[in-house]
Design a protein that fits this description.
The chain is mostly helical. It contains 2 helices and no strands. Helix 1 (2-27) packs antiparallel against helix 2.
Length: 66
């Protein structure tokens, strides 16, 4: 149950980072690097989540879908 909650929370954070990058892209007209930082954080979190899910599946911590 903990893994499901953690995955959902990380996905919400990833979506928040994506929308903040969109906001910065529209707001910053001076060439600020806030958009790049937000997208870099989103990519990093996605990679970490993917690796964590692979490790959890390897150790049998993920339940069966059916």
């Amino acid at each position: 149950m903990f893994i499901k909650i953690a995955v959902v929370l990380v996905l919400i954070i990833i979506l928040g980072s994506l929308f903040s990058a969109l906001f910065f892209l529209n707001k910053d007209k001076s060439g600020s690097d806030r958009t790049v930082k937000a997208l870099t954080m989103r990519i990093g979190l996605s990679i970490i989540l993917f690796i964590a899910l692979i490790i959890a599946a390897y150790f049998g911590k993920l339940g069966h879908a059916l």
